[in-house]
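Q: My labmate handed me this sequence with no annotations at all. I'd like to see what the chain might look like in three dimensions before we decide whether it's worth expressing. Could you predict it?
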Amino acid sequence: MRTKLKWYAETQALLDRDALTLKKKEEEIHELKETVARLQAQHGQTVAEKKQRGVERATDAKRIQDLERQVKELVLRAFFVLMKLYST
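A: Here is what I predict for the chain of 88 residues:
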């Protein structure tokens, strides 16, 4: 009977120790999962911001080209108006 009690006490101590270790590991896993989620969210925002900047740059480039074309047209019109004025 004594050996069974001794065995039970030792086994219970091992179980308690293992339960504590398991709880700590679970907490660590939870913290790591939160860190991963936070980093993924940050990465997602960064990718979205880069994509948005790329779209904005493309839009800006098109707008610049359009404005340059308008300037050329206005210069050409001004030239023809001046030519008409001088020829009359």
